[in-house]
Design brief:
Layout: H1 10-13, E1 47-49, E2 56-58, E3 65-70, H2 77-85, E4 90-93, H3 97-101, H4 108-114, H5 116-136, E5 143-147, H6 150-163, H7 169-185, E6 192-197, H8 200-210, H9 220-236, E7 246-250, H10 255-272
This protein binds thymidine-5'-triphosphate and magnesium ion.
């Protein structure tokens, strides 16, 4: 499932220089600390090579399952996460969107929607960092459910900006280099992808209802492109590699029916984690 890495220096492989590996941590309010990085205590999160893949991973943690919740903008990911957050033994991680709207007083999300050619790289670089931070943060329950992943940020949003001619080739190349380095050298396990499959029309309707300021400029065509990329990735499987098996849940239904579906799929979701 994962490409073998094996690019570590002998010293890193032996864990000798593990204290040099820094991981940016969120503070309690979920914000990246301004101007600083925190060194994860060596004993708690020593970085070693993963036995099968040769990638960097934290050790000292029992095997935990990671589920990534995927789907178009406003398809209902947060609602689904909120539902499962009431289940014991599941840790829920919502998307770091507040960080994308406010990094040291700047709003890269808003800037990107105003001028994607200029600010797409800025937003997507920061999305990639914050998603990596999410993937690497210590897991506090046997099962983690997280909103999106570093994979969809790249395979869907970066890809969409590039394909639609809104991201210069050089920006795409630099982001791709970063992404490839991260996924080659760092072990980011995902056990299951839950795909909330909604029509672009339904997402557009929900988007207008919730009325997030930055998103008021999003036309239906944008959601159609994102939808197509998701379908190619998770259903047709013709585009980017899949990091995990996929469970598809139709997501056009009203809230009550969606909650019912989540309940019906509860075992599949939890069981699939132990595959
Ligand atoms: P979503 O990840 O779709 O989150 P959401 O809360 O809107 O979805 P849901 O209602 O299903 O919970 O997107 C948040 C915003 O961030 C949206 O405007 C799309 C944008 N975005 C990017 O521009 N680039 C990215 O890489 C990602 C992940 C999101
Ligand atoms: Mg959300």
């Amino acid at each position: 499932m994962w490409a073998a890495g094996g690019r570590l220096s002998p010293m890193l492989a032996a864990g000798v220089v593990s204290s040099c590996v820094r991981v940016v941590r969120c503070n309690r309010r979920g914000k990246l600390p301004a101007g600083s990085v925190t060194l994860i205590p060596r004993r708690a999160h020593r970085v070693t090579q993963h036995g099968n893949t040769g990638k960097l991973e934290r050790n000292g943690e029992a095997k935990k399952s990671v589920i990534c919740l995927e789907g178009n903008i406003a398809c209902g990911k947060t609602t689904c996460l909120n539902y499962f957050s009431e289940t014991s033994n599941i840790e829920v991680l919502t998307e770091p969107i507040s960080q994308w709207r406010n990094v040291r007083g700047h709003n890269p999300l808003g800037l990107m929607y105003q001028d994607p050619e200029r600010w797409g790289i800025t937003l997507q670089t920061y999305v990639q960092l914050t998603m990596l931070d999410r993937h690497l943060s210590p897991i506090s329950a046997p099962v983690r459910m997280m909103e999106r992943s570093i994979f969809s940020a790249k395979y869907i949003f970066v890809e969409n900006l590039f394909r639609s001619g809104k991201m210069p080739e050089v920006d795409f190349a630099v982001l791709s280099e970063w992404f490839d380095w991260i996924t080659t050298n760092i072990y980011l396990p995902v056990d299951l992808i839950v795909y909330l499959q909604a029509t672009p029309e339904k997402c557009h309707e929900r988007l207008k209802q919730r009325s997030r300021e930055e998103e008021k400029v999003i036309p239906l065509e944008y959601l159609e492109s994102i939808h197509q990329l998701y379908e190619d990735w998770l259903i047709k499987r013709t585009s980017s590699p899949l990091p995990a098996p996929v469970l598809v849940i139709p997501a056009d239904h009203d809230l009550n029916e969606m909650l019912h579906q989540y309940e019906e799929n509860r075992d599949k979701i939890l069981h699939a984690c132990y595959l």
